[in-house]
Every structure is written in structure tokens, then in C-alpha cells.
Amino acid sequence: MPSVGKPLPHDSAVGHVTGSAQYVDDLPRREGELHIDFVGAPITSGCVRSIDLTVARAVPGVVCLLTHNDLSGPNHFGPILSDEPFLVEGEISYLGQPIVVIGAESAAAAKQACQLVQLECEERVAVLTIDEALQAESFIGPKQRMTSPAAEDDDAFASALRDAPHTLSGRFYSNGQEQFYFETQAALAEPGEAKTIKIISSTQNPTEAQAVVAEALGLGLHQVVCECPRMGGGFGGKETQSSLTAVMAAMVAQHTGRPARLVLDRGVDMRITGKRHAYQTDYHIAFDRQGRLLAAQFDYYSNGGAFADLSTSIMDRTLFHAENAYHIPRLRLTGQVCRTNLPPNTAFRGFGGPQAIAVIESCLQEIAQVVGRDAFDVRRLNLYRDGDPQQSVTQYGQIVRDHMLEEIFDQLADSSDYRQRMAAVDEFNRTSPTQVKGIAISAVKFGIAFTTKFLNQANALVNVYTDGTVQVSTGGTEMGQGLNTKIRQLVADEFGLAPECVRMMTTSTEKNHNTSPTAASAGTDLNGAAALHACRQIIDRMKQYAADLFSADIKDIRLEEGFVFDQRHSSHRHAFGEFCAMARRERVDLGARGFFITPGIDYNPDTGRGSPFFYFTTGAAVAEVTIDRFTGELQCDRADLLMDVGRMINPGVDRGQVIGGFIQGVGWVTDEQLRYDDTGQLLSTGPTTYKIPNITDLPRTLNINFIDNPKHQINIRQSKAVGEPPLMLGLAVWLAARHAVSSVANGQRFDLAIPATSEELLMTLTKIST
Amino acid sequence: MRDHLVFYVNGTRHTVRGSQAAVTLSDYLRNGITPRLPGTKVACAEGDCGACTVLVGKPSADGNGFEYQTIDACIAFVYQLDCCHLLTVEGLQHDTELSDVQAAMVDCHGSQCGYCTPGFVMALHGLVEQRTCDNKLTDDELRLGLSGNLCRCTGYAQILDAGHELNPSTRVGAASHFDTKAMLADFAAIDAGPVLVNAGSTPEVFLPATLEELLARRAARPSATLVAGATDLGVQHNHGKISPSDILVTMGVKELDQLEVTDNELIIGAAVSWSRIEAYVRDRVPEYYQILTRFGSPQVRHAGTLIGNLANASPIADSIPFHYVAGSTLTLASVGGRREVAIEQFYLGYKQLDLRPDEVIVSVRTPLPTANEHLKLYKISKRRDMDISTVTAAFWLEIEEGIIRSARIASGGVGPMVVRLPRAEVLLSGEPLTLEVMRAAGCVAREEISPISDVRGSANYRRQLVENLFVKCFYDLSSNLQPVEV
Which residues of A are catalytic? Predict the structure, then answer.
């Protein structure tokens, strides 16, 4: 029985529920293992004049104190610009930036030594916000630009904006978001023979951890192995930023010859690691009396923090998603990453997409008000239209094809009773003195592929054993998203085996090298395809051997239901394991390495034209909220989601990704608020003060549905990536809140930021009603 | 006197001596024993995510078994476990069979990354363990019951699905595969108390069994930390905000166990946990009950106490405004005798109490509203559940024929202490209960508070909330009363 399409439980589910699934801090203590702590910068901006370690060194149990001088390699790293020091070398760029790494026999000794390290620092004025960065012209990378062909002519574009029946201009703010992976950044480093180092890291990017550790330690890549058994959540936060923890652990291991482990405290993790970028966007948008979009200009500014990290790539994705699911004939976009004295901001599910989509969706909500139409209809009017050459080309020239956006809208309008509920909301708002309701739809069209072309590759190793069991190793990492579960199903089906016969192995750079991070929602697309490529090589050899054995035509050999057989002679069959044992004796190679590159990706960053994406994952959501007029407290009463994720490899896993992503998006736009003081110190440093959604915030009615899309014939088993896209549907809740506030605004314009906390909502309601 | 703690973990007897008695329970499980039990995860170390949830079984009143309740192991201490049976996620499987909760979580895709999963599994077990009827858990029960556990991956829906799968009528107890009778017999055979662990070193941990022992020790060790549920102490400990001090545990003292209504006064002893109060006031003081369901989390309410909350004296303590407007009285005791102090006189300034170093709080006595007295309590927080208040407020209005005869109003989160709002109270007295009157009082109230801006909200927001809560209170009361329309 094929298992693809079935909701098999998560690969590690039994381990999860019994507590036997191990994370870095759960792994047995190694003999002689050292505890690690570090001293971070006590100021936000400035430099270190001197570091005095003598007192700290005298603490009993302290084994090593390391600074940048103790790095064997260069003191800089970074996935794009390599501008970030491992350890402070003079310049301090953000509060808490690691300066001294301490290895000790106990956590207490390490902590005590930390407190005794004496630093002399010189403080400079810090740049914290986008506005301050603009003032100081403090930027990372050049201003990025993207212009649709019809907007290239300055005069024509200016007149399109000027002469339109309506225009809206303004500034839109969206705040950052903490990944809040449950397992904090963690790494265990074990020194081996001949100067080798093995790193067990909670990372989405073992290849990068391997490379960064090798560079910092002055080793060859062949001397470093990085493993990741699993992560307790990643969400992008462990795509690049797991490296620093790994390097600190590796430094201690290299200098002491002893194993060393570093697991960040929650508060430290939240203070020193990067988050989703806060954005500030200036928008000018022109539309006709029906609300049809005519032209728009969006100038995005992101708060990149102190170093480049992935910020420029994240800004790329912002520009690619400026229009979301809507066709804008003339579009001019600029994006500038601002350099500030915050920890470098980084990847977080959506990767710049949510910040762009928030702006256009907010504009559409307001446009509907201006033209006096239902926002649903305005959105529906502007959707990309499959097969219509006038309404299917993006600003970068890729054709949006084989999608179901209009069908999704129509089906969702029906299934969510949108029209009737809109009327009921209006009626409620006319009569209720205590609460105000809102309802809104939002869409997502998310491009699938790394926009950095070379990352769209993967390799996999498949070993078939003589008892008919199979081990699969890929460069993909499991962070809860179900990658291993899906690949297990794909491989099992390929061999005609039960999924129990297939085991997914720990991700290790020893088995899979030069891999891409597990990111961009493409984990299964890439690693699943690479695994199948390996399977097919083995199957070809097995079939050849079977054809010889059965004296059959290779076309008639089947691998199904745990058997290898000649479909024309029912007696010509062997159990899979028995067959494998025979094959080995005949010296048939039962292992293979598979390789995959995503086809059809072709984008030229110099011209801003081409097809950066393999395909698009799409969907829409309708959300209804109730807001207390006296407290601003928001409750999401109901949400209906409808997505096109192709043919699902595992509907249970995909449903989990959709709900989980959606709720994470709801968190971003409602309660999750990063607060800093004037010195750049983060105040919301744990779940006590940083409020991710609780189970009681789950909408009372939550309908998750999937639409069948027969037009989608590409990608592995006609599936689609699902990790990031549903996060952006969380915006429906924010838009519903905006709709609710607009119902008491009497046509006044008002701004509403992300997140729309109770405070933001109450103060906005108060402002517009006085 | 016994010099060690005795308890069981997943059926295995543990004896703890020395300073290990004062480490956190999660640290003990994960790092303090061999073999380690790392299934209990620590994701926040401040009792705000529930990943470390474990079940603590205390001998039941009838002596026939244990009653299991969830607590957060990261903010509990080993000394709280004396004579208990602790169940962790490693102890749930019967032979190699998954428990019903575990199986439902697997089948319903209740886990993704898995890090919060042991906590949810334990919390679900706690819910069904405490169930007194055979009905399936309702959506409300599941949501409130799991509100002490956060998950970042699943969006919760599939965890709810797992909860709905559970069938209390056919299930077996989580501890049924252990010989609990033998454990109870063991506990009965050992010296009941008092217990003094780590004598002569820091911290000394003393577990008195009687009030007399508690007061004597309090007099002898005035600098010792009084501990009830430790739900705040554990957080302070993990954040490195307290230096080690001797420990004096109140929870085993029989005389502090009072929970009753006498002469329309609710009396709550110092060792009564929030969850017991919650159950007790559910029908007796529904308004108080509503606030209690949002106090901390289920895990915190199983461990923490009202008296601990009052003594902790936070200006945003959820309980204090109610006790202000109700006019509660605290009974304090020392070796020298007892005295009573009105709650408003008990607070002298920010975290300053009228409590002598040799005194302890025995109980609090609270008059309950009579027919004409109307109570409304508000807690405003960024997130509805498991959040610390931004602003709290309590209204106690005596209303006769639409006229407010007297008003007592208190608010928290608006200054260094919970405060009454006397100018607003005066304005309301003698006035009809109308929207205009309440609105005017709100405008006065916002000027008699001195809130600050902090991580939970700005000063302006807090002022606006206090003003608005008067209007909200009007509408809430109007739905029960016949207000005088204007």
C-alpha cells in the first residue's frame, strides 16, 4: 500500500510523547565535558579598550578564557557579506555581543568567572531605529531596486500616480518577531583524533556550521563534522545564527581538548540572537473607482541590526512579494537594509515576505474603504488571473501560472459565509456599545525556491540493507516540520515497502556535504527529490538483476508490497529483503547518492528580470474578530483557511504546518511585541513578557481546507511547499481588526501598526472616536 | 527529627540529603540523578511555558492513593516533594505501551518539534486524572486546562484534537502500573515531621508540621525565606535574583489549611493553593472565580497560594484589588501571639509589609458581597491567559434602586502599590448608576493614579484603561441590573 498521501504520524512522534527524543541538552554528558559561558558587551555601541582576565582566571574550576586572539582563523563570518566578528575585536556593535568565552568544570564556576572579567569600554551613541539609521545614513548594502517594465519610464510612472482617480500615500510599520524556538541555540563540540572536531548542533544549516567552525578554528572542512539529530524548532532562527554557538563550543573544545557544550539561557538567546526584521515602508498607490490597482511605489526600509547576516536576501524576497497575489501593472520598488546597534536580524518563516504582504494587504483594505466597496471584491478584482496575459506577469517578469487564486476566493466566500457574516458584523457594530467586530480576507502567493540560485540543490544517501530495510540520509534537517516523515514515505513508496522499513538518519555533513540550509519551505522539494534520485539508481540495478534472475524483461519487474517480482509470472517473486540479500551476493550495489537541482529557475539580479521561483504556493483566509471597545482586547472568533498546497505527501503534517504557520502569523500581528529601552536593551526577554499565542487564543472556529489543483503537475509527486506560506494568512486577523476599527472611524484615515496589541487597538480607537 | 526527604519518582524511591534538597525539580531530574530523566524539558525557566510540566501525587485524604496535579518543575524545588509520588513523562508507559494520552498525541499529530510535547502530555494526563466524571473533556476544559502550556509549532488545534480523543470512562490511571499502596505504606512508616535537611549548611531547609514549629523556627531564623508554592521564588532563583537563604516551608502545616465560609466571610489559610480556592469559590463568588481562572496557569495555581500572592506584594498581583474592595483582614501570628491587620494597612509601600520578621500570615478573612453589593473584577493583560496584568481593577458598588449608596474601587498596575480610588468613589456615592456618572468617575480616576510605562504597556494606555473600566463596569452591571437610563 503506498503511504504517500496518508497522514502518518511524525517520524519522531513516539519519541516526542515519551520524552525519549533527544535534543542537544539531553544528550549524555561526555567524559570531562566542560560548561561554557561567555561575557557579552556591556554597552550597545562603542569599543573595548581593555580586557583583564586575571581575576576571572583564578576562579577554581575555570579551564579556559578565550578572546578573539584565540581564534586560529579569521575573526569574521556571515552567509553573504562575512562582516560579522565571532568575538568582539575592539568594536562593539550590539549589547551582549560575545567578547570572552569561558570553559569551566561547572556552570557555577563559568558564571562566576564571567562576573569577574574586567572590561574597559568606551561608549558611542547607538543607532537603534530605522529613523535613526536613515538620519545617520547607516546602511547595509546598496539600495535594492525592482521596477516592472511598464514603470520604467519616469514620466509615465509619475503621471500614472498623479492622474489616477484615487491615490493613497503613507507610512506603514511592522515590528519584529522573535522566533521563540522552544529549544534555544545549543551545540556540543567533541574533539577527536588529529585535531578533528565533531559538532552536534541544533541547526538548520549543518554545512554552514561546519564551514564556519572550520574557518574559525583554522581547520580544513574535512576536519570538521557537524551533526543535527533534530531541532526543538527553528523557524529560520537557526539558519545562520546557530553558528556562533557552535563556534564558541568548538573553540573551547579545541583549546582544552575536552568536550564542551553550550546551551543558551532563554533570556540570553532572546537578547543576542536576531529576529524577524522590523520594517518601515513608504507607499504611494494609485487605483481607479472600482479599486483596480494602477500603479504603486513601495520604499522598504528594514532594521538589519549590526551585521548583514541574511538581510539583503530577505529584502530581495520582500521585493519579490510586494504585490502578493495581486497584479499591479506599474510597480516601483526600493529596499534598503539599515544598519543599527541591535543583534543582526535574520531569517524567520516568511523571510521578508510577510512584511511586504502586510503593506499591500493593508493598502487594499483601505482602498476598499475609499471606493466604498467590500474589500473582498476589491481583492478579487486585482488577483492574478491564470492564463490572462494582461494579469499574470509579475514585476520581475515571471508568469504566475497554474494557480487557483480566483477559485480559492470564490470557494472561501461560500464556505466561510463571508457575505452573510459581513452583514452580521455591520449589524453588530450598529448596535453594540461595548464591542466592535471586523471581518476580512487576505491572500498569499509565496514563491518557492531559494532566490539565491546555487542553494537550489540537494544530495541524499540511500542504503538498502540485506534484510530489506533502508536508511536514508539527506542534508535536510528536522525541526518539527515533518521533512523526515515525508521523505520516509516517498522512499518507502519508491521501493514498494512499508514506511516502517525505512529509517531517516541523523543529518550529518559526513554523509551529505555542500548542502543548503533547510529553509525557504523547500526542504522536501529538494531533499525528497534527491532521495528519490538515489532510490531510482538502486532500483535500476535491482531491476536489472531481477530481470537476469527471472529471465524477464526489465519493464516487467515490479517492486511492490514488499516484493520484487516479474509481473508476468506470479511465481517469479522474492520478498524484498530476501532479494536484497541475493543481490548482494551477486555484487549488486545497493546504495546510492542522489542529487537534485531545481529546474527552470532563472533570474538575473542585475536586470531584475526572470523566474526566481519554481512555482507558487497560494491560499487565502477569512478571519473575524471582536474587539473590546474599552480595553482593546482582541479575540479571533473564527478563521477559515483554504490553501493550494498541491497533492499532499502527508495531509496530517501539512495541516499542522498550515495551522502552526497561521497561528504564528497571528502572533506576529497581535500580541508578540518586542520592546526595547532607550539603550537598546530588549525588555521582552522571555515568555513572561513576550507573548506568543496561547491555546486559548486559538479561534473558536477554525476551518482548514485544501483545494485540489489539477493544473499543478510539477514538483515532487505534484506536492507543494507548505512551511512558510500559511504564516502570512495570519494577516487576515490583523485586517479584520483594521476593519473593525474602520467601522467606528466614520471615514477618517487612521494608521494601525503591526502588532495590533490591545494597547495599539485601544489607543487607535480612542484617537479616532474623540 | 528527620534529616532527609523521601519521595518517589516514577515508582522509584528517592532519598535526598544536603543541598540537593534546594535545587529546582527540573535540575534535579535532568542533571541531579543517575540515570538522568531529561524528558522533562526546560524552555523558559520561569514557569511560563509548561514544557517542564510534571505530575505531583500527594496522598489523598482517604489515604487510598495519590491525587495527581501538574506543576512546573522548573520553578519548583526538591523540598516541595517530601512524601509525594512524582510522575514524569518517562513514567507513563505501561511496559512498552503508550498511555492513552501519548497514543492520542501521536495519532492526532499533536507534536511537531516535540520540545513542548512532554509538558502537554503531562498536562493532558493531569486533566483526566482530576476528572471526577466519565464525560469527555469539553473544548473549554481543554483550552483552560492547557493554557499553562505553550507550543510554537502546532498552533494547538491538533493538541486539542488529541484531548478530545481521550475517554475518561475507559482509561486507567496514569500511576496504575505502580505499587502506590506500598509507597503510601512507606510514607506512613517514616517520621512525619518536622524535617530539617542540610542542617548546619546553607541553605537549611525546614519543613514544619505544625504552626507551633513554624512560629518557633520563624522566630529563630527571621532571615529565612518563607516558602509556600515557590512559584515566584523559583523564577527569582533561576534569574539569579536571590542569594541563598534558609528555607521555611509552610505547605505542610495543618493549621494553615483552613478554607471555609463563616458568617458570610471567606476564610483562606496560608497553605491553601489557588486551585483549591478556585474550586471552592466557583459557585460562591463567581466573579472571583473568573479572575482566578486567569491567574498564572493551572500549574502555577496547583502550587501557589493566595497568601503567597498577598505577601509577595506585587502592585500587579491579580488577587489584591478584590481583597482591597472587600475589606479583607489578615491574621498574623508569631510566638508572641496573634494580631489582625486590615489589608490596606498591611501594605506600607512598594513591597513593604506590616509584617514583623518573626511573624507569618496565618489566613485572610474576606467579607462576601450581600444582595445589594455588586462586585466586578478586571484583569487586563496583553494576552488573555498566562500573562501578568497590565492593569487590574475591582469595583464594589452598593446599589439600591439604581442609586450607588457606596463605592469601593481599587486598581493595580497604576503605581507602586495597589490603590483605592477615593475621589472616584466619592463622586459615585449617592449618584444613580448611569453611563454618564460612571464615565465622569472614570475621568476622575485616571487623574488619581500614577502609572509608569514598562514592557507591558505605556502610562497613557494604563490611564485610558482605568478610565474605560468604569464604563465597562457600567455595561457589565447593567446587564444584571435595571439601570436608570438617561
Answer: 724
